[in-house]
Amino acid sequence: MNTSILHPDIQEFIIQNTGADITKLALQKNPFPEVEWISILNQIEARSKAKDKLPTWFTASNIIFPSKISVEQTSSEKTAAYKSSLISGKTLIDLTGGFGVDDYYFAKNFKVVAHCEINEELSEIVKHNFQQLQSKNIFCYPVDSINILHESETKWDWIYIDPSRRNDAKGKVFMLKDCLPNVPDLLDFYLEKANSILIKTAPILDISAGLSELKFVKNIHIVALDNEVKELLFEIHKNYSGQVSIKTVNILKEKTENFEFVLGNDSTCVSYSLPQKYLYEPNAAVMKSGGFEEISSFFEIDKLHKHSHLYTSETLIDFPGRRFEIQKMIPYSKSEMKNEFANKQANITTRNFPETVENIRKKWKIKNGGNLYCFFTTDVKDNKIVLICSKIN
What we know:
This is Class I SAM-dependent methyltransferase. The chain is of the alpha/beta class. It has helices at 8-16, 22-26, 37-53, 55-59, 68-73, 77-86, 101-106, 120-132, 145-151, 183-193, 207-213, 284-289, 292-299, 334-341, 357-364, and strands at 89-94, 110-116, 138-141, 156-161, 164-165, 179-180, 194-201, 217-225, 228-237, 245-251, 256-262, 278-282, 302-303, 311-313, 321-331, 345-351, 367-378, 384-392.
């Protein structure tokens, strides 16, 4: 760990240049020749990346940042705070510690948190930062977590794992067995060391594929931030054999949207209709969940078509996603499109429609933006339609 960058003058320089163009800055002469210029530039670039994602680290004094890639790959504080709200206890061991953002938040709900990170330099950086952040109940171990589990007699309340995809697995269908550590192979061993496990995976993992590789899964959390799915969380409890709950959350600036359902519920009742007064588009977490029939059943609203995943109702409801008032519905035909969209500006979405947004814009010369929201979709009678809407805030 390069502690020379903690010199007050260098720290002031890093703070003053946060957000600066690194390419231009790199061409300047290093004002601190006793420290590698690349190290200072890395701190500036990584700190710039952390501004919105990691405000606690950004505003604290004497923080050392790892590479900008490590900052890009780490959890944001908002998703870390959500994870920490799910679990609590006396002891937690994080087998894949990384930059330690998750552990900083877990430490608020656990008496002891063990941060395992095989990269010694990164482990040192994290240990230093936890000291600056006054997190005194997190203990850093710069070793392979499997060794700690083998050598320790400790029975942990929780194990947390964020497996990383192996380099040789690129291009293949994403499976947990293609990651390090290989959780499916090690699961029985982990369950000897803890009765509860939380596994974080990339959002591209297919939920049914994850379930096929794991056992004792009680809850699956789909976590979106500003309508972009960031992570899936598989919550495992030893010998659990009940139904699996899918819990979706979309963390927005002004509110949090939640929706949950039980996987494989036979009593789900879905209804269909032609467009009514209001239109609903589920958020990204709900879309990832596949709970399209459950949305219709729970909110008692109609789907436009089995494969359209848009919903409609006569009265306005609260909904986990975007809401619109339908101003007009037109059939998708040459004459109607020419009449309606001649030199107009609109936000376009396609759902269960044979053409792409790009093709539609080009074909009908529709500019992007404005206050009109147009959904190109298929109705319950298999007709191609366009719904012209205004957004409800």
